[in-house]
């Protein structure tokens, strides 16, 4: 039987779990043991590996803007969360590294390439 005094509530889903150390904040459902990328996604963007994989699959693994390069960077609305960690609600999609950098520059300059403007319009409030 698990000692209830040694259990924590997962910071993402609220499920009670027994942490393996004081550093564990998430249950194994939200972050599988040894999944460093999953831990990073949860810590920075408040999304699970499953959510990331779902977005990746929906985008067919390609950047949401250029549709050429593999999507690696998680894009979020900086108007909602100017830095990481984010709230998790403002994640828009996955971008290639080049489009992610160019989108940040375009948002600062106000000059938006057509593909980027179309991408952003899909997430406009």
Please provide a written account of the structure.
- This protein is an alpha+beta fold.
- It has a domain at 49-121: His-Me finger endonuclease fold, CATH 3.40.1800.10.
- The protein contains 4 helices and 4 strands, in the order E-E-H-H-E-E-H-H.
- It has helices at 36-45, 49-58, 97-109, 114-121, and strands spanning 8-9, 16-17, 73-76, 91-95.
- A two-stranded antiparallel sheet has the order 1-2. Strands 3-4 form a two-stranded antiparallel sheet.
- A hairpin with a 6-residue loop joins strand 1 and strand 2.
- The chain starts with 7 loop residues before the first strand and ends with a helix.
- The mean pLDDT is 90.
What string gives the helices and strands in order?
EEHHEEHH
CATH homolog superfamily of the domain at 49-121 = His-Me finger endonucleases
Q: Briefly note the structural class of the backbone.
A: alpha+beta
In the CATH scheme, the class of the domain at 49-121 would be: Alpha Beta
| Helix proportion | 25-40%
Q: Rounded to an integer, what's the Rg over CA atoms? A: 17 Å
Q: Give the terminus-to-terminus CA distance.
A: 48 Å
Biggest sheet: strand arrangement? 1-2
* Overall pLDDT confidence: 90
What is the number of helical segments per DSSP (H or I, 4+ residues)?
Answer: 4
Report low-confidence residues grouped into runs of 5 or more.
none
Outline? elongated
Strand content: 5-15%
Please give the CATH architecture of the domain at 49-121.
3-Layer(aba) Sandwich
Count the E strands: 4
CATH topology label of the domain at 49-121: His-Me finger endonuclease fold
Main beta-sheet strand count, sense and barrel state: 2 strands, antiparallel
């Amino acid at each position: 039987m698990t000692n209830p005094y040694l259990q924590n509530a997962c910071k993402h889903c609220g499920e009670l779990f027994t942490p393996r150390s004081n550093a564990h904040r998430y249950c194994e459902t939200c972050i599988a043991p040894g999944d460093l990328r999953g831990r990073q996604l949860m810590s920075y963007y408040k999304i699970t590996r499953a959510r990331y994989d779902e977005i990746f699959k929906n985008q067919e693994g390609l950047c949401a803007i250029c549709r050429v390069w593999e999507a690696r960077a998680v894009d979020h609305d900086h108007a909602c969360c100017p830095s990481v960690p984010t709230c998790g609600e403002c994640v828009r999609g996955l971008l290639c590294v080049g489009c992610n950098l160019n989108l940040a520059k375009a948002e600062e300059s106000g000059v938006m390439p057509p593909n980027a403007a179309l991408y952003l319009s899909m997430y406009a409030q």
